[in-house]
């Protein structure tokens, strides 16, 4: 059955299938029996307002289920909450979150590890392009020569001092 002629119970099933959820996953989350949920999808009874609120939290487009039209926000509650939380973070936390979320893409691209401002250049600025923190430099070879073998900290680049050998006979 097409979405345009679907009833509330049909649209409930359409949304569940769109989200890839089993009936069991939904009725367990709603804390109703299997029979009750089957009645929701068959049209024998309708979900309560509390159940619709839970379905909304699960990502169901409740406006579509009730009215039959896709809502303007097709992202669903989970993504809307994620975007809301992200928008309230500091720039540093946004950069860190984006780096974690994009870690799989970093592995695919590879160049992101060595190209400064990779996200800004690749994804074109905007609300989601925040500068990444400067790379951590463990040793700046141009500023100070490496330590000589056997030297103590702070004696970088100085030649190794050898203890004078005593000359004499026994």
Short description:
Helix content is 46%, strand content 0%.
Description of the molecule:
It is a single chain. With 170 residues, the chain is mostly helical. Among the domains are: 3-67, lambda repressor-like DNA-binding domains (434 Repressor (Amino-terminal Domain)); 90-132, no CATH class. Helices cover 46% and strands 0% of the residues. It has helices at residues 8-18, 23-30, 34-42, 49-57, 62-67, 76-87, 91-101, 103-109, 118-123. Mean pLDDT is 74; it is low at 111-116 and 126-130.
* Quaternary organisation: single chain
Shape: elongated
What is the makeup of the main sheet? none
Order of helices and strands: HHHHHHHHH
Report low-confidence residues grouped into runs of 5 or more: 111-116, 126-130
Radius of gyration, whole Å? 31 Å
Write the SSE topology.
Elements: H1 8-18, H2 23-30, H3 34-42, H4 49-57, H5 62-67, H6 76-87, H7 91-101, H8 103-109, H9 118-123
List keywords for this structure.
170 residues; mainly alpha
């Amino acid at each position: 059955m097409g979405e345009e002629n679907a009833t509330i119970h049909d649209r409930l099933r359409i949304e569940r299938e769109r989200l890839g959820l089993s009936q069991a996953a939904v009725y367990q989350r709603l804390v109703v029996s299997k029979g009750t949920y089957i009645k929701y999808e068959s049209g024998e009874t309708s979900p309560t307002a509390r159940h619709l609120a839970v379905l909304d939290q699960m990502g169901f487009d409740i406006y579509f289920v009730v009215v039959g039209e896709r809502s303007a926000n097709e992202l669903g509650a989970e993504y809307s909450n994620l975007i809301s939380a992200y928008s309230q973070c500091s720039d540093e936390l946004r950069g860190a979150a984006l780096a974690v979320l994009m870690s799989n893409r970093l592995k695919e691209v590879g160049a992101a590890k060595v190209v400064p401002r990779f996200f800004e250049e690749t994804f074109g600025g905007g609300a989601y392009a925040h500068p990444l923190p400067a790379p951590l430099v463990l040793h700046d070879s141009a500023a100070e020569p490496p330590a000589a073998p056997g030297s103590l900290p702070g004696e970088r680049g100085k030649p190794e001092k050898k203890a004078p050998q005593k000359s004499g006979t026994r």
